[in-house]
Fold:
Amino acid sequence: MAGIVLDLFFVLLAAKLGEELFRRIGQPVIAGEILAGVLIGPSVLGLVDLGEAVELFAELGVVFLLFWVGLENRIGKLHEVGPRALFVGAGGIIVPFVAGLGFGLAMGWEFTTCFFLGAALAATSTAITSATMLELGMIDSKPARIVLGAAVVDDVLALILLAIAAGMAEGQIDVTSISVTVALSLGFVAFFALGGTRLMAARPQILKDPKFADSPLLPAVLLCLGLAALAAQVGLAAIIGAFLAGLMVAETKEHHPVEEEIAPLYAFFPPFFFAYIGMQLDLGELADGETLLILAAVTLIAVVAKLIGAYMGTRGLDSRESRIIAVGMVPRGEVGIVAAGIGLAADVITPQIFAVVVAMSLITTLIVPAVLPRLTRAGDD
Amino acid sequence: MAGIVLDLFFVLLAAKLGEELFRRIGQPVIAGEILAGVLIGPSVLGLVDLGEAVELFAELGVVFLLFWVGLENRIGKLHEVGPRALFVGAGGIIVPFVAGLGFGLAMGWEFTTCFFLGAALAATSTAITSATMLELGMIDSKPARIVLGAAVVDDVLALILLAIAAGMAEGQIDVTSISVTVALSLGFVAFFALGGTRLMAARPQILKDPKFADSPLLPAVLLCLGLAALAAQVGLAAIIGAFLAGLMVAETKEHHPVEEEIAPLYAFFPPFFFAYIGMQLDLGELADGETLLILAAVTLIAVVAKLIGAYMGTRGLDSRESRIIAVGMVPRGEVGIVAAGIGLAADVITPQIFAVVVAMSLITTLIVPAVLPRLTRAGDD
Structure:
């Protein structure tokens, strides 16, 4: 246990020193935290191992991050952008998926491998874009809401893709079970996004009803962890549950000091997530010419295909908003890594392609904090 | 990962429901959290396994609990009670140790086993008494300070006992290495209790100097995790480091809103610790007449010997304060369990005696929240 506490200390310290350095040189904070993770991770200094504890804190980091994002939004405003988010999400999935699949086939790889590559390229990491938008103070702007809505759409579509891919790896695709999973997921999102938020708006006191609740903090945190775990049970990402929990609690903001109480948890956990993304990079596996070429190609395809797909979905919006949205969809972050990880575990992706996808996820992730501030500064909000 | 988040959710939910029930029936909250742990643990419902993640959260729970206790104290006031704490701590260790050793020998057990039993009986869990005193609003009273000081003394003495016991289990006792460990530990405590608090009092702004620190929260948390890990490295309990970190940060309280920022972490983590103590109880192992008899005897000896030993150390104080201090030293909590766990791992303690020590630790732990409120109500503060 003592060693694990030391690991957690090192990860948090590294992330904060990375932030410190990047603040001082005027660079985006999240990039500093991720690159600090690369530095302390197995492939450079090897200060901290990729153990279960660090992974758990990374998972809780992204859970509390999306909980916070939900808390900073309101369901009423998300409704307005619903149809738009659907187009952006669908476009942002389909084009990169087809591009990734096509690239793999052109390389002569096995079909299942190509399908996984497509799924990894189709992924979107809301976490990175959300964190950047939080930093820029634009988390409740229209583009932010569209990206968030699109991410929910994405996650449901990615679920289908990954279920098909996993079925392929096992040799059979169970259409019934995939349909059930998708129906369950949609039901889960609809139930809490509509029913849950309405309940909270009607009865905000519910968070203070229990006698153990001197403040709404622990009921809110229990809701976050509970919906995160439940989302994972129905096949969605845990962060979708955390986001919905945040949206529910947001309906009580006028009644409780819930944001200031959750802020310390939001400050404590997410740095583990950002550092962990960096720690997963395997520089050794990337250190040959062919792999670097593949990485360059995959990253280029990942960026261009996502920009095109998402941009197509923004038709009708003004061009500044469209650009922000399209760039906001580019990061693959943890979602791309998870998709590739499933493929690696199922033995349909080689360690080489896994390393490429991780590196691509990291590079696409670093693009947003680097580019988004410029796009937002380019015009008025 | 999803299963682990679900486990954490269940543990936190159970602890809070236990608290809820006990609040409603007017019983001590901590007992409710511990008994909820018994209920969901392997020996009753088996809802949650004793995995590494739950253990880690329990460890962080007690770390943040003692950090908070440090934060609610001031080094200046602890100094005043120093000599008194030394007597209470020494008395509270020596009498139970001799009693436990003697009981084991009378039972005809092996000497090493008896030594471990003595060490487990000599343990003191500050966490439980501190939490109860926090609940009663008396954490900065004189008896509370004496118990806290005595706990630090205890931990150093227990370290010596456990090092000797572990040496016995391995067949040789390395006097040099034990001396070095003890010297290191005393140096560690002195360095941070004296130097660390002085530094903080002189330069409270140090917690806000880093650019990543919009508030003192993360520097304070890093100090807590860092000193907890360092304490474990020098051979002390991690909580001693956390307590010292709390004392250091307490010196800056006039300058920063540090308590209100750490309060949410203090609300979130410690319930895992209390529930975990309950989860470790193995009712199956206790379910025969002989074991229950041994348990009754060991628990009686544990309570009486600690009361006598600690009470002897309080000579000169008024009788009400003496009673509070003596009762406050009774809980063995996690410390007794850890001592027995080391013995179990080293194969010098049988599963039967381990189960007895865990049950004894739990029973002595429940005595404090049950009895302490009555003692404090008996007179004025």
Summary: The CA atoms of residues 177 and 222 of chain B lie 30 Å apart.
